[in-house]
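User: Predict structure, ligand fe (ii) ion.
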Amino acid sequence: MLSTEENQLLTQVGPGTPMGELFRRFWLPAMLSEELPGPDCTPVRLRLLGEDLVAFKDTQGRTAIVDGFCPHRSAPLFFGRNEESGLRCVYHGWKFDVTGACVDMPNCVEGENFRSKVRLTAYPTFDGGGLIWVYMGPPAQRPPHPGYEFLDKPATHRYAFKYLLECNYAQSLENEFDTGHSAFLHSRLEGAQGARLDNRWVAAGMRQNRVVDYSKMQIVDTEFGSALIRRWDQQTENGNEVYSIGTPFWMPCFSAAGALTAPGTFPLNIKVPVDDQHTAFFRYKWSDEPLTEQMLWEMKHGGYEFPAVIPGTFTPKENKSNDYLIDRNRQRFYNYTGISNTPVQDFAVTENQRGPVTDRTRETLVSSDKYLIHVRRRLLAAARLLMQGKEPAEPWHPDAYRQRMRRIQVPPGTAPEEAARRLLDPESSAESGNGMWAGMLAGAPAPLAGSSSQG
Ligand code: FES
Ligand SMILES: [Fe+2]
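Assistant: Predicted complex:
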């Protein structure tokens, strides 16, 4: 539970708000690269952190993300003419380049001299991993590019899509670290179609995982955010104990909690605030190997890992306006929710927690909510520190963001703190790799987080 004031601190992301300023210290994905297909492309309307923006590529192919309104009389630059290395406002013809400089002011006698005094807000961008990234903070605090491994992967090794969600980012983000919900929300009924009615609340194959017991797990803070360390029940043949690190929270809004991912691919779920009531959810899969044609087809058209959208939009076909096409017959006999698609099951709950900005004064949290409480506390603490003038350290540790989820063996009796230290040391010997990660997340040989978040 949070106080009203804390809830506002967590959820408000506009310019000048503490959380909004914290997010503005990080490079964030703004859009899919394919949304700006090439030089002089059609300008794209964009809203991020409560700011209305316009994105375009100029004649040289340079990407611009700029204020959505002209500094002359606030006409919408979305209607602008993207021509000859700049975007021209259609109201009176002022023209701006990708840096925001006014390069033409053709409607007044003082234009030639006065235009150098006029600037359009323009944010730095870079293109990486099939995403266009933006930095919306103070120029002096601009950090290096993040160190995610997927930024180095060629296009053949990755797939990304975007969904617009009708809720505050924190609702969607907390769902990533709501480690126990898969055993209910994403479960099928025992025996699927043939389930008996008295079994209808039983999650097939997941009963043993319904209880999330944090006494067997340790939440650790890292240079990139937080992670979950777990001691596995089984030992190795030589009697060593096995520890793993997983379910990473990369500050401020990145997660790899999703279990629903093709073999050999790494999942990544990114929840970028559009404004207080909307979120851009970038769903990302990448691999050390090229994705196979079959994998790509499944991702693009299968409607399983990536829910289908209304053509020409980023809105899922199963959405809030149609109650996510819940099928009560399916719910009675087949799965827990009656909603067919796993990510959509998440959307259905997170978009409707008493509304788009949930009232956290009305929650009743229990021990199984420990990780999501940790994540929100970490965000709140960082926002408060920033208000006091202490800049966040995470954006300045891009290499920490490279760390893979891993597993180590330690001699029996090793203190959990020592196991955690070794897991966080990328130099220590450990198993790692996407096979292991995907295996753990898929629940084989043992789920990483007791009942890991899926979606
Ligand atoms: S409002 Fe854009 S040129 Fe006048
Ligand atoms: Fe989920």
